[in-house]
């Protein structure tokens, strides 16, 4: 069965997280994604994370970070600092629909691999650049990693406990959120550009994605709260400044996240707790008032909830259609029956590791379902295959390139 993007070829020159995440999503949708890596070393994340073990329990060269971001691709090693390597990439560009790169702004100009140069070779090319601060502006020259964009975008200023509570202070979100958010925006841009090329213009275009921009855009509703009210958002732990009760509550054996979304749910909730009078208390009758008075309301609720277990409250709240869920660690996440029913944990056969776990793509498509045609590649695994298939190089020519350090 043909997939959504089985007619598309992607040249992935990116490293680390945001660009590779973008390429993996396109590969899941059927694109032929060719990952270009440095000979001998490869993507930086091949040296980051935990080493996967083979079926005999021996450590392999494959790392958890690389395995998370590079499913479905073919790995080709090319030394782009050499003229011969640059020419190989240019020949691949001629046969590609999309190019993804996340070098510092302007870096690829010196190799002749910038958009202005490559569009002369392939006017239909969609060229997507992902950088920390974008291609223009006073910070465009700066390097950056996820924590920088979490901090500068305002995300860390509103994440964490208030200063008067234990552990108070700004906190980083527990994963590289700005990298993956930028990757999602890149995917949207690439798909939109492909549609414009194929349905309207016949020509490619340049896409400039900045992690800083993407992180700010993704928290737009909180930023809008500030822009409309002038009130700077404060750190509130798991609570919300505009909805209440909407936070984690301590139980006898863990914590339960409870999200009461409207006034009728609140009435049911307090009746369950044996506090029905709170529903008619003038301080709590509507959500806006509950949010304003949550320092008074929450201790009343906490006193009851902490007398029983997570399961006890979850079962009763589920029966009342009040949204709630346990705060799981990862030993619990993958035991969740909903996750298992949705097949969100899959296993793929890897050439050196054997069976490796993968977090499945969450897209459920009826006509063009996601498929997992290739595991994350070993370094340079497909160099001979790609150079022979796409560029017509024979084994002797490929061997010569390897001997000279070009591939």
TrEMBL record:
Residues 40-56 have a biased composition (Basic and acidic residues). GO terms for molecular function: CoA-transferase activity. PANTHER family: SUCCINATE--HYDROXYMETHYLGLUTARATE COA-TRANSFERASE. The keyword Transferase applies. Transmembrane segments: none annotated. InterPro entries: CoA-transferase_III_domain (IPR050483), CoA-Trfase_fam_III (IPR003673), CoA-Trfase_III_dom3_sf (IPR044855), CoA-Trfase_III_dom_1_sf (IPR023606). The lineage of its organism: Bacteria, Pseudomonadati, Pseudomonadota, Betaproteobacteria, Burkholderiales. It holds the Pfam family CoA_transf_3. This is CoA transferase. Residues 40-64 are annotated as: Disordered.
């Amino acid at each position: 069965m043909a997939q959504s993007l089985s007619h598309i070829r992607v040249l992935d020159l990116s490293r680390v997280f945001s660009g590779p995440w973008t390429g993996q999503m396109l590969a899941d949708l059927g694109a032929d994604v060719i990952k270009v890596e440095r000979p001998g070393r490869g993507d930086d994340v091949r040296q980051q994370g935990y080493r996967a073990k083979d079926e005999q329990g021996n450590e392999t060269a494959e790392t958890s970070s690389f395995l998370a971001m590079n499913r479905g691709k073919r790995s080709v090693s090319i030394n782009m600092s050499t003229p011969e390597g640059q020419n190989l990439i240019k020949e691949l560009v001629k046969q590609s629909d999309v190019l993804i790169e996340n070098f510092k702004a302007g870096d690829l100009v010196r190799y002749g691999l910038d958009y202005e140069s490559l569009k002369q070779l392939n006017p239909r090319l969609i060229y997507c650049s992902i950088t920390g601060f974008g291609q223009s502006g006073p910070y465009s020259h700066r390097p950056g990693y996820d924590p920088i964009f979490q901090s500068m975008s305002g995300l860390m200023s509103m994440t964490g406990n208030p200063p008067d509570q234990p552990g108070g202070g700004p906190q980083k979100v527990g994963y590289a959120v700005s990298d993956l958010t930028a990757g999602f925006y890149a995917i949207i841009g690439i798909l939109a550009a492909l549609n414009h090329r194929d349905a309207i213009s016949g020509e490619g275009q340049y896409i400039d994605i900045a992690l800083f921009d993407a992180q700010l855009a993704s928290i737009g509703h909180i930023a809008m709260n500030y822009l409309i009210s002038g009130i700077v958002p404060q750190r509130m732990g798991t609570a919300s400044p505009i909805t209440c009760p909407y936070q984690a509550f301590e139980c006898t054996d863990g914590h339960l996240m409870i999200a009461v979304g409207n006034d009728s749910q609140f009435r049911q909730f307090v009746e369950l707790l044996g506090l029905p009078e709170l529903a008619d208390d003038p301080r709590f009758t509507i959500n806006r008032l509950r949010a304003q008075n949550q320092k008074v309301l929450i201790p009343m609720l906490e006193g009851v909830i902490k007398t029983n277990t997570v399961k006890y409250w979850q079962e009763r709240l589920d029966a009342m259609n009040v949204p709630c869920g346990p705060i799981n660690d990862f030993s619990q996440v993958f035991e969740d029956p909903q996750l298992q029913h949705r097949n969100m944990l899959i296993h793929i056969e890897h050439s050196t590791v054997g069976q490796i776990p993968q977090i499945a793509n969450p897209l459920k498509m009826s006509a063009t379902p996601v498929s997992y045609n290739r595991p994350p590649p070993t370094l340079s695994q497909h160099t001979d295959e790609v150079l022979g298939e796409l560029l017509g190089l024979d084994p002797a020519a490929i061997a010569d390139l390897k001997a000279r350090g070009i591939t």
